Amino acid sequence: MSRRLEVALAEAASPLWTQRVRAGRDLAPHADVPEAAEVLLGLLLDVEDTAVTRQTAATLARAGTAAAVRLIALALAQADDNHADWLHTGVHDALLGSDRVRDAVAAACGELARDQDEAVRRGTAEISAWTEDTKGDKPGIR
Questions:
Q1: What stretch of H or E contains 124?
Q2: Angle at the Cα of 136 (from 82 to 53), degrees rounded to 5?
Q3: Rounded-to-10 torsion of CA 103, 119, 129, 34
Q4: What is the DSSP letter of 32?
Q5: In this structure, what DSSP letter does residue 33 have?
Q6: How far is the C-alpha of 16 from the C-alpha of 23, rounded, in Å?
Q7: 29/4 Cα distance (integer angstroms)
Q8: In Å, how far are 66, 98, 115 from 74, measured between CA atoms?
Q9: pLDDT per residue as tens digits for the range 45-87
């Protein structure tokens, strides 16, 4: 495991929300690494600050990989209504005005629609609907 990954894993447990947001950003490219995935799921469901939830969801959506989108889908399955709203907001932040991100997330959703885990399939269907909702949106226009 790289030193940078170790540092990000440690920062995820910080009492400071800003460090947890940074940890989410640094861990997102490693969403396919089991240790990182477990920590990222915890950041998506952060009980201390929904800014961590929002920023981690946005970063994972921008990564656009199946592993990253799968984590958002799993978090949706476990989230209360408040966290689900912030997960949606974070993903929306990433999708808004970016055809590249929207296309990558949609492709990942297509792949995950056949996942063995029913919770992943449910969350993926919701995320897929979010990608459809943002088609044609421009930044700053709601």
A1: helix 118-133
A2: 25
A3: -30
A4: T
A5: S
A6: 11
A7: 12
A8: 12, 24, 11
A9: 999 999 999 999 999 999 999 999 999 999 999 999 999 999 9
Answer positive or negative: Cα dihedral of 135, 51, 87, 117: positive
Dihedral angle computed from the Cα positions of residues 25, 129, 133 and 39, in that order, rounded to the nearest 10 degrees: -10
**93-98 long-range CB contacts below 8 Å, 24 or more apart?**
93/54, 93/58, 93/61, 94/57, 94/58, 94/59, 94/61, 94/62, 95/61, 95/130, 95/131, 95/134, 95/137, 96/134, 96/137, 96/138, 96/139, 97/137, 97/138, 97/139, 98/62
The residues, ordered by sequence, that sit 6+ positions from 104 with a Cβ below 8 Å of its Cβ are 64, 65
Quick: pLDDT tens for 95-112.
997 899 999 999 999 999
Prediction pTM value: 0.92
| Two structure tokens written together for 44 | 């998506």
